[in-house]
């Protein structure tokens, strides 16, 4: 980024106010993440959840995206999960519901309507998930600690707990939209980024403390630091990787003017699906463990044995879990890419606008060409996403540590992509504010 542009950014009052909005919302987010859900004994519940999340890498990964609000049983414990789920549901429904598909093609007005529907769908999802989270906390505390740390809440207490958690999720969605409208960058992405990096200083301090107490861990920590730098470079290249397909537009003539042809390109990203395949894979991987706990005491022998098998093998430390995780991420990468990237529609739009790929016939030939390109790119992208997903389990065995590795390859991918996109938007705003100087 041009330092001169950044200098102008701080000198411009409007842009400076946008930065203050972002920092102000992040401060409010930090305060709300420490506001506990009203339960009978929040201190004991928080201590129990903290031990549980530190011992389970999968739960620690989920806690990472809420900035520790999940382990502290804060009103923000669901984070932006309901909003993200609502967005994914509507995006998938857009492939089968003609009305939603039409909205996706209407441009800005259609996008605003879809955002409105997403907000409406977020509320019932937040209500259902809040009840599920309270029930899960009660079940885990009874099974592991032998005590119901939620207590025996009355109907009024249930309403109070569910309302506070739901309100926290809706408030977080509103804060994200404030950043998007009045700040800089995508508010939802910035809040997710803040949740991921909020615990990073504490985790680093813990690792340095352990290394200072045990000199044998110093070399392991140095090796991890070197590997982390290499992984950041790899993730940056992976996030920015794209193939530019050359596009030419034919010469056009009107009654009084003649317009020369234009040469441009169609960028196809290496990871078109983003981190959505990993979110899908984690959702599916939670099912065997849930079914194992649900049918663990079944009277039918084969059902009980199957439940025991799922409980034992679908844990984050088991090889079967890692293998299935990789396969699911790989599969969902192809699935979601097929949902969001439609070669036939792109070829049709190019043909309507008079554009074509040099050496490729417009229409069906262009669609087949684009499909071949995206299939080859997705192969490498799916393998890379699968590797990033199982990276924490590999490094945990290599460096014999799990605390700092809770950020994982997925968290690293989100951090890199959000930072790069935000920096691009900052530079864009700064250039627009100083356009008359050039």
Summarize the structure in words.
- The chain is mainly alpha-helical and about 450 residues long.
- The chain has a domain at about 1-200: Preprotein translocase SecY subunit.
- It has helices at about 5-10, 15-30, 40-55, 55-65, 80-95, 100-105, 110-145, 155-180, 185-195, 200-215, 215-240, 275-295, 300-315, 320-340, 345-350, 365-400, 410-435, and strands at about 240-250, 250-255, 260, 260-270, 355.
- The strands form 2 sheets. It has a 3-stranded antiparallel beta sheet with strand order 4-1-5. A two-stranded antiparallel sheet has the order 2-3.
- Helix 2 runs antiparallel to helix 8 and helix 12 (about 275-295) crosses helix 14.
- The longest helix is centred in the first third of the chain and has 38 residues, at about 110-145.
- It is globular and about 75 Å long.
Gap between N and C termini, in Å? 16 Å
Number of strands: 5
Number of helices: 17
Mean pLDDT: 79
- Taken as a percent bin, the fraction of beta residues is 5-15%
CATH class of the domain at 1-198: Mainly Alpha
CATH topology of the domain at 1-198: Preprotein translocase SecY subunit
Q: What does the radius of gyration come to?
A: 25 Å
Strand order of the largest sheet: 4-1-5
Oligomer: single chain
The CATH superfamily of the domain at 1-198 is SecY subunit domain
Q: What is the 3D form?
A: globular
Helix content, binned percent: over 70%
Q: What would you call the structural class? A: mainly alpha
Largest sheet: 3 strands, antiparallel
Give the low-pLDDT segments: none
CATH architecture of the domain at 1-198: Orthogonal Bundle
Helix and strand pattern: HHHHHHHHHHHEEEEHHHHEHH
């Amino acid at each position: 980024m041009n330092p001169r542009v950044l200098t102008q950014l701080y000198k411009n009052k409007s842009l400076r106010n946008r930065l203050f909005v972002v920092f102000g919302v992040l401060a409010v987010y930090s305060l709300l993440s420490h506001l506990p859900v009203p339960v009978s004994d929040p201190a004991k519940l928080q201590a129990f959840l903290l031990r549980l999340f530190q011992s389970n890498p999968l739960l620690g990964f989920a806690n990472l995206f809420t900035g520790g609000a999940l382990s502290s049983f804060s009103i923000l414990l669901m984070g932006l999960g309901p909003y993200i789920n609502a967005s994914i549901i509507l995006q998938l429904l857009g492939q089968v519901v003609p009305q939603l598909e039409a909205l996706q093609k209407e441009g800005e007005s259609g996008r605003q309507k879809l955002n409105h529907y997403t907000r409406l769908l977020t509320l019932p999802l937040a209500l259902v998930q809040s009840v599920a989270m309270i029930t899960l906390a009660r079940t885990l505390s009874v099974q592991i600690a032998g005590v119901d740390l939620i207590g025996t809440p009355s109907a009024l207490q249930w309403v109070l707990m569910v309302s506070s958690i739901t309100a926290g999720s809706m408030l977080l969605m509103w804060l994200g939209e404030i950043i998007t409208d009045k700040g800089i960058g995508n508010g939802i992405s910035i809040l997710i980024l803040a949740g991921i990096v909020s615990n990073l200083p504490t985790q680093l301090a813990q690792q340095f403390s352990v290394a200072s107490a045990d000199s044998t861990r110093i070399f392991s920590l140095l090796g991890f630091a070197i590997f982390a730098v290499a992984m950041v470079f790899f993730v940056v290249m992976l996030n920015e990787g794209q193939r530019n397909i050359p596009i030419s537009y034919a010469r056009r003539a009107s009654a009084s003017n003649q317009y020369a042809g234009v040469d441009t390109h169609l960028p196809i990203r290496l990871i078109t699906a983003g981190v959505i395949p990993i979110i899908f894979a984690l959702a599916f991987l939670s099912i065997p463990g849930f079914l194992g706990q649900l049918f663990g005491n079944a009277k039918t022998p084969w059902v009980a044995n199957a439940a025991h098998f799922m409980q034992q093998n679908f844990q984050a430390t088991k090889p079967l879990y890692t293998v299935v995780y990789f396969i699911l991420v790989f599969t969902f990468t192809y699935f979601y890419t097929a949902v969001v990237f439609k070669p036939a529609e792109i070829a049709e739009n190019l043909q309507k606008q008079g554009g074509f790929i040099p050496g490729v016939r417009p229409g069906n030939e262009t669609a087949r060409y684009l499909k071949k390109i995206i299939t080859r790119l997705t192969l490498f992208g799916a393998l890379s996403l699968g590797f990033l997903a199982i990276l924490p389990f590999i490094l945990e065995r290599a460096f014999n540590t799990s605390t700092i590795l809770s950020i994982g390859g997925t968290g690293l991918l989100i951090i890199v992509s959000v930072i790069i996109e935000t920096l691009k938007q900052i530079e864009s705003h700064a250039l627009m504010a100083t356009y008359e100087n050039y």
